[in-house]
Design brief:
The chain is an alpha/beta fold. The protein has 2 domains: 192 residues, HUPs (Rossmann fold); 96 residues, GMP Synthetase, Chain A, domain 3 (2-Layer Sandwich). Helices cover 42% and strands 19% of the residues. A 5-stranded parallel beta sheet has the order 3-2-1-4-5, with helices on both faces. Strands 6, 7, 8 and 9 form a 4-stranded mixed beta sheet that branches. The protein is globular and about 70 Å long. 36% of the residues are buried. Bound molecules: xanthosine-5'-monophosphate. Xanthosine-5'-monophosphate binds next to loops. Keywords: ATP-binding, Glutamine amidotransferase, GMP biosynthesis, Ligase, Nucleotide-binding, Purine biosynthesis. One of its GO terms (molecular function) is ATP binding. Homodimer.
Length: 320
């Protein structure tokens, strides 16, 4: 793509000019935006960049390993992998089931852990963020006007100003589809570039009720099977987001000669252009039956599967 290769070269030059000989720190979320920003900045200034991946234990199956492998082995970018699962889970177990309390706890811990890592590196002059054009527009048009907070938002771009670092935001002029083109231009694997969006608070908001490691492990398995079936059916790229939700409800079932009493798993899939509105995806019933059968047979702890047919509005995409 000619225009993206020109953009890439121009941005590289701009980043060098802005940063000089300074040190840059970049938080990776496992998502496309922060990954593209990091690779672009590394291309411009090499090892003046350090990436920090705060692994909160709320990622999907195998996802944390993928991030580490991609950055360390494939790109050779200095990466600090902070294994903070125990910290996050022990704090989350204390907060109970309230969705906002869960979100706020995750946001607070994320900042604490990131801060501590930045200090260990000896501080940095710049903080890199994968802010996109729509984020810039949204924060401008929302300021001043009356606003209702549906959910407190958290992502790696939400680090506080008190961190006193200047920002490097090489994606500020781009839309999501352009970031994907740039990602391909930079050689990021297709599986990474085409990934569905994933929320900062991760699986915690797909596990209504109290969070436990056991529930998260059950959810991860069901989610992986569901996504596998979606890929096999060739539907991954026509869907905006698809995921499993583990409900805090147990129901009775029968398996062989035994009565079971296990969790309900809800499946969600939506189409959307920007995440602001969304339609539930009208799967073929055979597809849903297949996914449900596999989940119940292969995941211990789930004995019933339901499909969410709510669009946004009135529903939100995530359950919390
Ligand atoms: P909702 O559930 O509000 O989600 O309809 C709209 C889009 O935003 C994502 N989402 C988040 N992304 N941090 C993020 O980075 C968050 O706290 C967060 N909450 C929701 C959601 O996955 C969907 O794409």
């Amino acid at each position: 793509d000619w225009s993206m290769s020109a953009y890439r070269a121009e941005m590289s030059k701009k980043i060098k000019e802005q940063v000089g000989t300074g040190r840059v720190i970049c938080g990776l979320s496992g998502g496309v935006d922060s990954a593209v920003a990091a690779v672009l900045i590394h291309e411009a200034i090499g090892d003046q960049l350090t990436c920090v991946f705060v692994d909160h234990g709320l990622m999907r199956l195998g996802e944390a390993e993928q991030v580490v492998t991609l950055f360390r082995d494939h790109y050779n970018i200095p990466l600090v992998h902070v294994e903070a699962e125990e910290l996050f889970l022990s704090e989350l177990e204390k907060v109970g089931p309230d969705p906002e309390a869960k979100r706020k706890t995750i946001g607070r811990l994320f900042i604490e852990v990131f801060d501590a890592e930045a200090a260990k590196i000896g501080g940095a002059d710049f903080l890199a963020q994968g802010t996109l054009y729509p984020d810039v527009i949204e924060s401008v048009s929302f300021s001043g006007g009356p606003s209702v907070t549906i959910k407190s938002h958290h992502n790696v771009g939400g680090l506080p100003e008190r961190m006193k670092m200047k920002l490097v935001e090489p994606l500020r002029e781009l839309f999501k589809d352009e970031v994907r083109v740039l990602g391909r231009e930079l050689g990021l694997p297709e599986a990474f570039v085409g990934r569905h969006p994933f929320p900062g608070p991760g699986l915690a908001i797909r596990c209504p009720g109290e969070i436990t490691k056991e529930k998260l492990d059950i959810l991860r398995k069901a989610d992986a099977i569901y996504l596998d079936e979606i890929r096999k059916a060739g539907l991954y790229d026509v869907i905006w987001q698809a995921f499993a939700v583990l409900l805090p409800v147990r129901t009775v079932g029968v398996m062989g000669d035994y009565r079971t009493y296990d969790h309900v798993c809800a499946l969600r899939a939506v189409t959307s252009v920007d995440g602001m509105t969304a339609d539930f995806y009208p799967f073929d019933m055979n597809f849903l039956g297949r996914a449900a059968t596999r989940i119940i047979n292969e995941v211990k702890g789930i004995n019933r599967v339901v499909y969410d047919v709510t669009s946004k509005p009135p529903g939100t995409i995530e359950w919390e």
